[in-house]
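README: folding subset

This subset contains proteins for which both the sequence and a predicted structure token string are available. Records are stored as plain text. Below is the entry for Oligopeptidase B (701 residues), shown exactly as it appears on disk.
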Amino acid sequence: MTGVTTETPVPAAKRVPTERTHHGDTVVDEYAWLAAKDDPETIAYLTAENAYTEARTAHLAGLRAELFEETRRRTQETDLSVPTRKDGYWYYTRTVEGQQYGVHCRRTVRDGETAPPVSADGAPLEGEEVLLDGNQLAEGHDFFALGAFDVSPDGRWLAYSTDFAGAERFTLRVKDLQTGEVLADEIRDTFYGTAWSTDASALFYVTVDDAWRPNRVWRHTVGRPSSEDVVVHQEDDERFWVGVELTRSERFVVIDIHSKITSEVRVIPAANPTGEPAIIAPRRQGVEYSVEHHGHRFLILHNDGAEDFALAFTSADAPGDWTPLIEHSPGTRLEAVDAFENYLVVSLRSNGLTGLRVLPVGGGDEYDIDFPEPIYSVGLDANPEYRTRELRLRYTSLVTPDSVYDYDLLTRQMVLRKRKPVRPGPDGRAYDPADYEQHRDWALGDDGTRVPISLVCRKDSPRDGSAPCVIYGYGSYEASMDPWFSIARLSLLDRGVIFAVAHIRGGGELGRRWYDEGKLLAKKNTFTDFVACARHLVKAGWTASDRLVARGASAGGLLMGAVANLAPDAFAGIVAQVPFVDALTSILDPSLPLTVTEWEEWGNPLDNPDVYAYMKSYTPYENVAPVDYPAILAVTSLNDTRVLYHEPAKWIARLRAAAPQGDYLLKTEMGAGHGGPSGRYDAWREEAFINAWILDRLGRA
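--- output ---
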């Protein structure tokens, strides 16, 4: 099988199909054997698929190299992030031309130094201290990712964790930043999230259960073996997962306990790390809240009787009743609150756009920070200091590269510290945002709901249907696809391609209602909204259906599979990355990673026959039919723990069997996880591969 390149790989015929029966319905799965990751035949099949995909796209090798080179040339490879001040240090990350990963550094704050230091062309700052070099850590490994990077409050210790497989299971270590020594402390199989005690004697961290659900918070004593570590909280309800962090004030260790729709928060005084966690408010089904410490009070962002959330506070000494601070305002979704000594900053969204609201403490009217473009995305960057009058924020749009600003909370003046450099393209011309334009359009959903679409294109792109277009979507978990800038995307735009983002229900762009109307037994709104957006782009003259490629990843990959079944005529091609296309099978198996925690998003088909029937009616793998599908490229990773590799592998196999006249490709990263390749150059090559395939489908190769 591994020698097959020009012929379509065929799954092993000798395999016996599996059957499952739920609620009187029996389903045959002829490709279930592909879930056996350790079976040599599975690996041989995936390897054969990769060889077949490479052979079928060999004619694009030159274009792939061209697209990669365009991204490389436009990127300032040796660069330095805007340093962030914490106590007596500036912290920053450098990248070096030719190296895949960042170098994490710090430098002492010099007398009279108020503005972050800069360097010419990303060169090291004079007097810098290298805390961690990702390139050195990654030596000898095909994959590398950091899970934790957490400097202790006294600046002496660095807690960091590494993953060399892509499975998002990390080994946690502690480095002495005074001596450079990595301590013998080593804790395996940790998850994201750490927090230090005030005196840096204790480090809190998270581990997972057999279903890979983060379920335990531990306390580790620095310098002692991990066998002595103590479980601080264990969450036995399989719907909930846990996280841990230190408040900005460094006064409290916060243990966040969440399901999809319910929250509970416990706190431990950072100065008393062995203390018993105190509950801020016991969990109540359907009530979500988060906690931020501010002086004598805890700020509570919550949805108790407030669909789009409200802000309240309670005593930090004796948490109890909640006193309103910002009342609920339907249509304005409050997403986070950040506390500083003299200011509160609320991250929100309204009318489909993100925003920041400032609340001075002790007097003065609250106000929203204004931004110039009609379509943009703004959010807080790292702001580790509690006593500050400056706010670090990030701003971008479809035409404005990622920009870092410092905003003076007292004078309300905003200073641009850095805009991501975009170097001249292959024609030698510098990037000019004026060469491009962004638009907000609206489609009409099947039920009459207006669905926003964001678009970017070269200026004066034709509106006669002749322009090719890529439409991107996600639409799950209340995650919003806010406008973002992409250097790699310029290669598409400069070849005349329009890029559109469909802000469909299931996301959070228009508040909590927008999310609620695209989940559980309303999930099909996500798919019909996306098709409506695709149809609208054609009707409005942006493109034509034979010039339109759809793209989505993860739950957006489920979207891709669903719309392929729902409206195969609407697209010339579909790119599905790490796609959740066998959703019903996965959600029926509580032993799989994260399944039980997902039931509040999709429903529980094990117990509820209505949920079972509804999911079966849309899940892509179950609904493959002998129809004319558009060309499909599925991209996955062998070590993905969120969407297992066998979902797209089975999907492609079933597509070939049911509709053999179609063009279906499967590409599996054999040493990566959910996010794909880890090194920046490897990620650029992956994007070049996908964009070359897209351009080929659009006739622009």
